[in-house]
Design goal:
The chain is of the alpha/beta class. The protein contains 13 helices and eight strands. It has two domains: about 120 residues, no CATH class; about 120 residues, Rossmann fold. The longest helix is centred in the C-terminal third of the chain and has 18 residues.
Length: about 240
């Protein structure tokens, strides 16, 4: 199967090694991976801030960048969800709406692709640690992907998963929300840090770079010794 990697802005700038892990895992599972060089931001910051004109411009560019792709896979549930929102931008443009539908129909979040498309749950990973998992708001509520990450983590040898209290609560990132509502965002991420500490976990795992950047940044500022990792880093780990 041919797969196009949608790395996302945060992935490219802050988590390039996650992209490498995704590619290595997909290739190990028999996929042929390419990287459309024309890809840019999906337009989510503009969309969430109400800048419809700018969001449409970004959406059209992304649709064109991945139009020839057989499948689009991204290590970000939030950005995958945004690509599924494109149709709503083109109510008065039926041709673009159809092209947006075609892109959404072939776009998957990374763990969703592994479990639902490739039908793989045991990657053969080994990671000895006590961990907990943070669920991304957009990934679960908008994209509807909730069980795939846990199905994969349950098969990682040596990994003990501890339940995270109020796991479905937002970490406070929310894209531009963390900038516009910084005091509220800080209280939300502090609560997430406290709940993570309660589990006794050595590692917090997630599937969205934005959440991970926000939580890790707060962990470091508070001097917490808990590692924060993307699920692809766990699944691609071999002891």
């Amino acid at each position: 199967m041919k797969v196009s990697l949608f790395i996302t802005c945060l992935g490219e700038v802050f988590y390039p090694n996650v992209g490498k892990d995704v590619v290595e895992l997909l290739e190990r599972l028999g996929c042929e991976v390419d990287f459309p060089s024309g890809q840019t931001c999906c337009g989510q910051p503009a969309y969430n801030s109400g800048h419809r004109k700018e969001a449409i411009k970004a959406a059209k560019h992304t649709i064109e960048a991945f139009e020839k792709s057989e499948c689009v896979v991204t290590p970000s549930g939030s950005c995958a969800a945004m690509l599924h929102e494109y149709e709503s931008l083109f109510a008065g443009e039926p041709k673009w709406r159809e092209r947006a539908h075609d892109l959404a129909d072939k776009t998957y979040e990374f763990t969703q692709f592994l479990v639902d498309v490739l039908k793989v749950e045991d990657i053969g990973a080994t990671f000895s640690a006590k961990a907990t998992y943070h669920t991304s708001c957009h990934m679960t509520r908008l994209l509807g992907v909730e069980n795939a990450p846990m199905k994969l983590l349950e098969h990682v040898k040596g990994l003990e998963i501890k339940p995270l209290r109020n796991c479905h609560d937002c970490c406070g990132f929310g894209g531009t929300f963390a900038v516009k509502m910084a005091p509220i965002s800080e209280q939300m991420v502090d609560e997430k840090v406290r709940h993570t500490e309660e589990t006794g976990a050595d590692v917090l795992i997630g599937s969205d770079s934005g959440c991970l950047m926000n939580i890790k940044g707060r962990m470091e500022r508070l001097g917490k010794p808990i590692e924060v990792k993307h699920i692809a880093q766990i699944l691609n780990h071999r002891n």
